[in-house]
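Worked example 3 (structure in, sequence out).
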């Protein structure tokens, strides 16, 4: 006999899952990255190609993750996949990174950007205080009700996409065109192969990070074998189109010298498109929309810590859930780590550090698609990655190229990332020894 609707566990629908993916992707990166990119590159064609290439990487990754999620439908994301494909130690390292960096750092970045945008509109606000207040408020919402958190996600994300569409359409109609050329010439193609392009791709890849967000909630998605691949693909395609359109408008409407080095590029571009008064209003709107990004990460991240607690006796306390099925202890741990990032580091330091370590883990996960097909050819796969083996190979080639340049040009942030992995390995082996005793 089926349970009454009032007591059935709440399941995440295709719409909610897609909203979570979009909300995780759209936010910090697209509203902050262009200012860093135009410092070393002024070609309109090359700058837009950054966002297209970043979208291709994300789309190929989503196709690969869709197969893994359908074949191994359990919450946990890379933690679950790497444990099953390679070894529990590598899965633990992935979970360690997700628990300590994967969601806490991007949440901190989103709130830092939110604070910066808000301070541009209301100079009397203290950005760091606002960042801390937003994290604490949204943690309270998600720790209280899973259903309320999901409904909040759908509503805020719908508003976010609608505002971005208005921004793009208005930019085409109202902006004064700048002397920038978007059609390629020979030098533009050469620039795509330069180290400058590869380093700029670091920021773009971070802007697209979040395309895999729904796999962390696999156990809570309705019919995950069918819906999860569709969620990943739909969310990624929507964001790719939004990103290319939005960055075209930024470049089309605003002089590059005014964008260079600026964190709040959306506010700067809005001021050129609509004038100072409406520009301030749009800056305020963007600050509010970043709440959606923070909300989605606070919603999804603690599920990783919860699954680790279920598998590892030393972390069993973090697997405890409330009467509503919410991993409150894991959520509180993530909140504390987020506040540490906000209060101790700069935006760029956190972005490069998080970008390197997260790209390394997604690289290993997509590589695992080949390993899993070789080791377990008879495993039921309700969905197979489109374009295999070309799509995973393209993802690995582009992601590997980016990782090499991060190691070469940003060694300090890369070493911090590797040190985080080393600390996780120490914790894992200590935990194994204690368990054996």
């Amino acid at each position: 006999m089926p349970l009454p609707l009032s007591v059935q566990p709440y399941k995440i629908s295709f719409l909610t899952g897609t909203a979570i993916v979009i909300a995780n992707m759209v936010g910090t990166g697209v509203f902050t990255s262009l200012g860093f990119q135009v410092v070393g590159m002024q070609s309109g064609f090359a700058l837009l190609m950054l966002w297209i290439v970043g979208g291709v990487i994300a789309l190929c990754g989503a196709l690969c993750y869709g197969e893994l999620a359908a074949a191994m439908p359990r919450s946990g994301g890379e933690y679950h996949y790497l444990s099953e494909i390679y070894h529990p130690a590598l899965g633990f390292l992935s979970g360690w990174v997700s628990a300590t960096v994967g969601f806490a750092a991007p949440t901190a970045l989103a709130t830092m950007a939110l604070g910066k945008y808000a301070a541009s509109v209301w100079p009397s606000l203290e950005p760091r205080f606002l960042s801390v207040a937003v994290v604490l408020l949204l943690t309270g919402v998600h720790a209280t009700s899973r259903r309320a958190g999901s409904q909040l996600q759908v509503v805020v994300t719908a508003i976010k996409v609608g505002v971005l569409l208005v921004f793009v359409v208005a930019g085409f109609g109202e902006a004064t065109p700048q002397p920038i050329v978007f059609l390629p010439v020979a030098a533009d193609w050469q620039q795509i192969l330069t180290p400058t392009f590869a380093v700029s791709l670091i920021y773009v890849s971070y802007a697209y990070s979040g395309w895999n967000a729904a796999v962390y909630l696999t156990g809570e998605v309705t019919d995950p074998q069918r819906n999860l691949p569709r969620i990943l693909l739909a969310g990624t395609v929507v964001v790719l189109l939004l990103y290319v359109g939005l960055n075209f408008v930024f470049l089309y409407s605003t002089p590059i010298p005014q964008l260079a080095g600026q964190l709040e590029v959306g506010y700067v571009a809005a001021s050129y498109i609509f004038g100072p008064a409406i520009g301030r209003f749009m800056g305020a709107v963007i600050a509010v929309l970043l709440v959606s990004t923070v909300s989605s990460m606070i919603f999804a991240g603690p599920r990783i810590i919860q699954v680790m607690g279920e598998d590892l006796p030393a972390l069993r306390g973090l697997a405890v859930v409330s009467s509503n099925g919410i991993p409150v202890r894991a959520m509180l741990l993530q909140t504390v780590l987020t506040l540490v990032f906000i209060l101790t580091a700069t935006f760029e330091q956190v972005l490069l550090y998080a970008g390197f370590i997260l790209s390394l883990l997604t690289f290993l996960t997509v590589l695992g698609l080949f390993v899993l097909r070789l080791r377990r050819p008879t495993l039921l796969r309700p969905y197979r990655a489109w374009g295999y083996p070309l799509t995973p190979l393209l993802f690995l080639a582009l992601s590997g190229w980016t990782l090499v340049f991060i190691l070469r040009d940003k060694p300090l942030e890369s070493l911090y990332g590797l040190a985080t992995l080393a600390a996780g390995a120490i914790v894992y082996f200590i935990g194994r020894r204690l368990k054996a005793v």
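Notes: Residues 101 and 354 are 7 Å apart (CA to CA). The chain has one domain: 14-377+384-436.
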